[in-house]
Amino acid sequence: DGPRMPVLLHEEEQVKWLTEIDESRIKEMIKPVSDNVLEAYPVGKISGKGAIGNAPEILEEVQYSELEKFW
């Protein structure tokens, strides 16, 4: 077994992914996602000191001064 990676599928491919047993068909569905599909931004802490925990607000963008040089 190799490393595990998440896979992003279009809705119409989800059932095929779960029921398809042909390895070649599965390999056809695995392809890099387009650059404009995903968005990355910093979010709040989910655990530890000052964390808001596992709540919907965790998805809101948070600005960290120590990360400003990367954005």
Write a concise synopsis of the structure shown.
With about 70 residues, the chain is mostly helical.
Task: Report helical residue fraction.
Answer: 10-25%
Number of strands: 0
Distance from N terminus to C terminus (CA atoms, Å) equals 36 Å
**Major β-sheet profile:** none
Net shape = elongated
Count of helical regions = 2
Mean pLDDT: 82
Strand composition percent: under 5%
Low-confidence parts? none
Secondary-structure-based class equals: mainly alpha
Q: What is the radius of gyration computed over CA atoms, rounded to a whole number of angstroms? A: 18 Å
Can you write the helix and strand succession as a string?
Answer: HH
Provide structural commentary:
The protein has 71 residues and is an all-alpha fold. It is built from 2 helices and no strands. The radius of gyration is 18 Å and the shape is elongated. The mean pLDDT is 82.
